[in-house]
Amino acid sequence: MAKIEKSRLQKILASCGVASRRGAEEMIAAGRVTVNGRPAKLGDSALPGKDRIAVDGEPVSFSGEKLYLALHKPRGFVTTMSDEKDRRCVAMLVENVGQRVYPVGRLDKDSEGLLLMTNDGEFANLVAHPKKHIAKTYRVTVRPAVTEEQLARIATGIEIDGRMTAPAKVRVLEQQPGRVVLEIVLYEGRNREIRKMCEALGLEVARLKRIAVGPVRLSMLPQGKYRELTKEEIRGLLAEAKKEGSRRQRESSASRTGQNTGKKAAHGSRNSRRKC
Questions:
Q1: Is the pTM for the entire model greater than 0.85?
Q2: Continuous segment of H or E residues that includes residue 157
């Protein structure tokens, strides 16, 4: 029989569907997690299925069934499983799932649309990781009008909070007096990025709806309802995350190689001058 080995507490909580690894670390730091009745701290390990792990006094279940959901989040709901201000949260929309699931990434309270949810911590970490840059597509209604220069700035990047946004794709879907509907595809997950970009351009966001995450589309899913992801959608998300991660790694490696080549060339040039 295989020996059970200790794992980091945040990894165990993520694999059990309690939260993402980052969310689990926040829970541990806040003193909400106990192991065998004792408060846990960051860096602690435990034996899955052997040690008694609890969050807010509630024992953690080690069920092996994994769930992957697409939820149509309405406006007015916060993307959390509980809220200290007693606001409506997305947990209310998945109460009848039968297992605890949590959001993969975020949509702010005033935004609506596609939100992925799961109890698979490894999946959530891979898909939501900032370095993966999975495409997220939004339908954005702005006022009063949009110029070609503003569209170009969205596409090439805008400085927000002292840092440039990554290049995005943008096109006009509808144009009426005092109102324009845009489709914007982002490849990074900065907080309220579209709203901040539009604010920097003097545009008012009247409505913001996420309609796709990678190959998963919202389509005709009603507000407040959810569906299970298909196997093809799950494979597509994982493939896109791994492909994007590999591409970034290659680019980083090529950049370092170029820098090292430049240094070697400069070093060789200095040696050549010394020999002459």
A1: no
A2: none
Domains of the chain plus CATH, in order, are 7-59 (3.10.290.10), 68-128 (3.30.70.580), 136-213 (3.30.70.1560)
The answer to whether residues 8 and 24 touch, using CB atoms and an 8 Å cutoff, is no
CA distances in angstroms from 160 to 146, 190, 242, listed in the order given: 19, 10, 28
Of 37, 103, 21, whose CA–CA distance to 29 is shortest? 21
Q: What is the DSSP letter of 74?
A: P
Tokens representing 8 are 């980091």
Cα 185 versus chain centre, distance? 14
Tokens 């909400």 found at: 32
Residue listed under structure tokens 């009008």: 145
The verdict on whether 108 is a catalytic residue reads yes
Q: Detail the DSSP E strand segments found in the chain.
A: 7-8, 33-35, 38-39, 45-46, 53-55, 58-59, 68-73, 102-104, 112-118, 136-143, 159-160, 163-164, 169-176, 179-186, 204-213, 216-217, 226-228
- Residue-wise pLDDT for 61-85, tens only, equals 776 688 999 999 999 999 988 777 8
| 107 alpha-carbon distance from chain centroid | 9
Q: Tell me which of 44, 83, 86, 108 is the catalytic residue.
A: 108
